[in-house]
Amino acid sequence: MKLHITAKQIAMIAIFAALFTVLRRMDAFPMVGVTGARFSLSDAIAPIYGIILGPYVGGASVIIGTFSAMALGKPVVFLGLDFLPAFVNVVAIGFLVRRKWLPVVILYCSLFAIFLFDPYTTWLINIPWGSSTISFPFFWLHIVALVVLVSPLGYKAASWIDTLQTGKLAIGVTTLAFIGTMIQHLTGNILYEAVFGQPVGIWDAAQFNTNWNIVFYTYPWERLVLLVIAVLIGIPLVRVLKKSFFRSEKPVNSETAS
Predict the structure, then answer these.
(1) Burial of 118 (0-12, 13-18, 19+ CB in 10 A)
(2) Are 154 and 148 in contact (CB under 8 A)?
(3) Does an H or E element contain 228, and which?
(4) Mean pLDDT over residues 68-87, rounded?
(5) In this structure, which of 20, 59, 120, 168 has its CB flanked by the most CB atoms within 10 Å?
(6) How many other C-beta atoms lie within 10 A of the C-beta of residue 9?
(7) Cα 109 from Cα 169, distance rounded (Å)
(8) Local confidence band at 241 (pLDDT 50, 70, 90 cut-offs)
(9) d(C-alpha 40, C-alpha 2), whole Å
């Protein structure tokens, strides 16, 4: 299997890694559950990198951009693995844009299963309901994203990206950005439990249960804000770059280019 990286791809990685570095250092809003940590603008544009650049150039740009931002003073949250959530987002969306739907479904289901069966995950949240409480799944929005992914909406979203029709383009970008931000959240949750859980970390299951009961009320709003930013930036950007130099990435593996 022959590896082939073109000068065009190297130029794109350099440009978009530099942009990612800048956005990574621009704080958006606090990250609930991790004292002092904040979401950055790079978290919002990760799925757009997948749409525009594809999995290889986009993924490389995220890795280089994340480590560059950390070298310039961006706080490290996940023991140097801070690039993983956005990286998985970009790679997943990049594959969807390339019509590689099944691997993304397998990836999403695998991450979902890892999160569900982690001993630090809280499955049900007790919500006040009148004089009593009802139990509701913490991961309800991840189920919604999985349904969207396996539905015709998730399968066809990539083809709508390839049109210049405003309605279809908007639906395609919104669908992919939603799937991307939720798979990024799953990856971040797994890292969160792996890094801060005992014996390596400082929290036990009871502390995680307390944290998840707080996060339950905030994470859908966090995802909504990131989604809105991605859509507002992504729709005009994809339209402008549709037929430009930066529109798409050819496979790194030259044997699959045909």
Answers:
(1) middle
(2) yes
(3) helix 205-241
(4) 92
(5) 20
(6) 18
(7) 26
(8) confident
(9) 37
